[in-house]
Amino acid sequence: MQESIAILCGGGPAPGINAVISSISRTFLKSNYRVIGIHEGYKGLFLKDRETVDIDFKFADRIHNVGGSALQMSRYKPKNEEFDTAFFIENNIKLLITIGGDDTASTANRISDFLRSKNVSIQNIHVPKTIDNDLPLPEGIPTFGYQSAKEEGVSIANTVYEDARTSGNWFVVSAMGREAGHLAFGIGSAVQFPMIIIPEMFNKTEITINKIIRLMISSIVKRKILGINYGAVIISEGVFHFLTDDEIKSTGINFTYDAHGHPELATVSKAHIFSLMLAHELKKIGLEFKTRPVELGFELRCVRPVAYDLVYCGLLGLGVKRLFDAGHTACMVTVDNKGNIEPLFLTDVQDENGKIKPRLVNMESERARIIFEDGLQYLTPGDWEDAKQYIENPKYYDFREILNW
Question: Looking at the domain 4-144+305-348, which fold is it?
Fold first, then answer.
């Protein structure tokens, strides 16, 4: 029977997935492997009536530079008792290729362990994907999709900033990001937003909604001192991951709740929440500004990939074949700035509980220092006297006082 490889995509989409699928398929087809694409991720893998597609050169060529994913995705995470050997044996699978984040990679390892216990030996290689840029790749190497998502985010943010100037409003922009603020930081620094708020900047104090609102007001008052009555702030939605349930409930927003009684954050706009709370606080202290929310999330995930990601994803796909031929398994494929392909073994980046620690924005880096010290606009002690004409206690809104820097 012809030897085969299987490809599946887990989690949410990111620009460049199709370029990865395309380059993987081409290089394995060239070596006379059958390439099977699995729809619906892990959910589809273990269905008896699973939907698959045999990928040929024509299919691979057509999808290379298209946004979205030609293989339908799923966040489904199978339990061990759902595992089965049938698909792998019946199709003579030699390699399972997974495209996704840390959960997708960890599940692939569990499946491989199960198959080995049943005397079915296959390799598994993971292609790290997320627009959040939070997987622990080597320093300076982004996750694929991040650059394309950032480019689209910058395009929208530029328009938002021009709207702020034109209409005299303050916009509150929220950008995707679980625990890390890479996307918000990248977009905000590119457009030169006067305020960027990410979880990592709270490295010396607890994250609270009160502090987030005060940081926004600090920028608003500073801009007013400068004679500018408009602006925009970008906030990483990752700040919500560090707030308590009680703190989130205190916003007054009507949330739905999951089976464990936790607010379901995915169903609401974080920008809307912070815009409403900022408006309330501005009215309370007597500052008249209109605030408007903008959410940067799903709009960024399926855009056509930029040239950087097209080249990068092509190398990642070709790199899978290199690692496979070298006998590597249970690893992620990485490509450095010189084009060198190396395996990153999951055991080297997992904690004692098997969880992959997210890569955060390095607040000690020169780039972060420059942006947060010189690139933003906020109150400092030198502004306190001028700020008194607008707020009673300027120290309360001082950037460094809020963050305990």
Answer: Rossmann fold (3.40.50)
